[in-house]
Amino acid sequence: MPKAMNDSIEIRLGGVGGQGIALAGTLLGNAAALYDDKEAVFTQTYGPEARGGASRADIIISDNPIAYPFVTRPHVVAVLFQEAYEKFGQELAPGGLLIVENDLVNARTDDADVVRLPAVKIAEELGNKLAANIVVLGYLIGATNAVSLHAMEEAIRATVNARHLDLDMQALNAGFTLAVEAGND
Amino acid sequence: MPPETAAKTVAPEAAQRVLTGRRFMLGDHACAEGALAAGLDFFAGYPITPSTEVAEHLASRLPAVGGRFVQMEDELGSIAAIIGASAAGARSFTATSGPGFSLMMENIGLAAMMEIPCVIVNVQRASPSTGLPTMVGQSDILQARWGSHGDYGIVAYCPSSPQECFDQTIDAFNTADRYRIPVFILMDEVVGHMAERVEIPAANEIPHVPRKRPRTKPEEGIFLSYAPDEDLVPPIAHAGEGYKVHMTGLTHDERGYPELTPETHDKLVNRLVDKVRLNALDIVDFDEQHVDDAECVVIAYGCTARSASAAVDQARAEGLRCGLLRPKTIWPFPEERVRRLLEIGKIKRFIVPEINLGQLRREVERLTQLPTIGLNHAGGAMPTPNAILEIIRS
Q1: Mean pLDDT, chain B, whole residue set
Q2: Does any domain span residue A55?
Q3: CB-defined contacts A:B, below 8 A
Q4: B380 touches chain A (CB under 8 A)
Q5: Which chain B residue is nearest to residue A25, measuring alpha carbons?
Q6: Per the domain annotation, does A53 fall within a domain?
Q7: Are B23 and A34 an interchain contact pair (Cβ–Cβ within 8 Å)?
Q8: Given an 8 Å threshold on Cβ–Cβ distance, is B5 in contact with A22?
């Protein structure tokens, strides 16, 4: 698992329109660049490429300035949609972390490193399955330290609608706790 | 970023003109915020990818701080409207991409001839014609310099990051007002659609260069609207203030009245060109990395400069004497700096990577006999650091 493997981490989030993939990516960028004092660049699929089919949000987080803005070999791939898994799963860097949404993605590989995260189920139990993206974010930062939990909480507070704040905080912590527990096994 | 996310980020402080603080924002949004910080009064535009987020952002932000936002019928109307608003004293702005930039060319010449300041951002996509609407290009470099018929002076900035989109949009407004010229911000799709941290200073730290204004009162009746000062720039009177002003695209005398003679024309057009040319040292902006002892100098701008910067750092780590010159103003091109580097005499070759088929390379070739190697792509993709590094190594 790429726990701050070097001073730079490349993350690719994949899903389908409406799952909050771009929002999740933006939150990672906000957390890193505004509250953790790191450098961060965010890019996403745009135009016809993003309509229907798999959408993608890419984030690079680094202790140093980032020149080339695009993710080339992600250390972390998190996908919430089968087509996104097919498209982005094999781009993962060797030894990287693959997170798949357990009910929405049928991951073929038996690779022990695949994390099958029941993010939708957890979010539903918390009150709204739309918070599945935040559960994934919680797990992702718990497993990688890409950004601190505190920074992500600040980013969520500053960005999301106040109506969803409690739900999102619970979703974040649920995902984060799962990752920490998995790391302690 | 989907629009709803952007709106959420902005809504709580919508009435604040300068969003002082640290933000994580798109290059397009940073450009819009730069315009607001510079005191934008009036925006007229027609949405076009990949510049649409500039207009979209200003549609909510500009009216909230007391400005006017108009979605026009097309780009011909957009440029005409901002020239008119500027003649009435408003800081005026429009945003477009290649196809719209082409449509604006006629009135850009009119703004240059009538010396009406205006700022136009062109977020470049792969061209010619409608090309690849959602994909990156850098192929409007020479059009920005020469696109309207005739000789005239303009300034074009070329940001490489959302922070520079913010900073250079402010520079663009100040330069337009200072010299009474059209000023362009030549962004590109990559810079426009990437998000990074942007530091926005306090409102009282935003540089503001006012227009030169008449030094006599309207009732004195002696104001000549096209009589230049020593810096070749005439003070500007605004429509409705009571000065007797005539504006025309025809060749005109110092009152602004048509005077259709070769002598007047030659004098006027030379002044339009010289007010930029002779002030170039004050206008030119560039950035450098390891050029002092470099035998190989990469000249790159916009998003391409980011790959070039990574390539140059890597080449240095391999012990190669290589540097980067990054023009932040494409026009005027930092030619004095290039001449100075040539005089030092260490350079053996230049590399000019661009997302076009060699537009700025021509400018470098004009200055030197040394080998000038292009790394060119017609558009849709930006060169990787490795592609540039391979040429540095060869």
Answers
A1: 95
A2: yes
A3: 70
A4: no
A5: B1
A6: yes
A7: yes
A8: yes
Q: B29 to chain A nearest CA, in Å? A: 14
| Partner-chain contact A161 B196, CB within 8 Å | no
Cα separations (Å) of B140 from B16, B155, B156, B251, B305?
Answer: 34, 14, 11, 28, 16
Tell me the C-alpha distance between A13 and A132, whole Å: 13
- Look up residue B109 and give its two tokens: 């010449």
CATH of domain B286-393: 3.40.50.920
- Sorted by where each begins, the domain ranges of chain B are 3-205, 286-393
Q: Which residues of B fall within a CB distance of 8 Å from A69? A: 190, 194, 303, 306
How does residue A148 score in pLDDT terms, banded at 50, 70 and 90?
Answer: very high
pLDDT (tens digit per residue) in A95-117 = 899 999 999 999 876 665 799 99
Whole-number percent of chain B with pLDDT over 90: 95
Number of domains within chain A: 1
How close, in Å, is residue B194 to chain A by CA atoms? 5
For residue A20, what are the domain limits?
8-184
CA B58, CA B42: separation in Å to the nearest integer? Answer: 10
Nearest to A158, CA basis, from A11, A34, A18? A34
Of A44, A68, A159, the CB nearest to B307: A68
Within 10 angstroms of residue A33's Cβ, the number of other Cβ atoms is 27
CATH superfamily of B3-205: Thiamin diphosphate (ThDP)-binding fold, Pyr/PP domains (3.40.50.970)
Contacts of A176 (CB under 8 A, 6+ apart): A138, A139, A141, A142, A149
Equal fold, B3-205 vs B286-393: yes
Q: Could A26 and B1 be called an inter-chain contact, meaning their C-beta atoms sit closer than 8 Å?
A: yes
Q: Do A159 and B190 touch (CB under 8 A)?
A: no
pLDDT band at A2 (very low <50, low <70, confident <90, very high): very low
In-domain check, residue A3: no
What is the chain A residue with the closest CA to B388?
A68
Please report, for the domain that includes residue A79, its CATH number.
Answer: 3.40.920.10
Q: Is B5 on the interface with A (CB under 8 A)?
A: yes
Confidence of residue A54 (pLDDT cuts 50, 70, 90): confident
ipTM value, please give it.
0.94
A2 in a domain, yes or no? Answer: no
Q: Report, as an integer, the average pLDDT of A141-151.
A: 97
Q: Is B57 in a helix, a strand, or coil?
A: helix
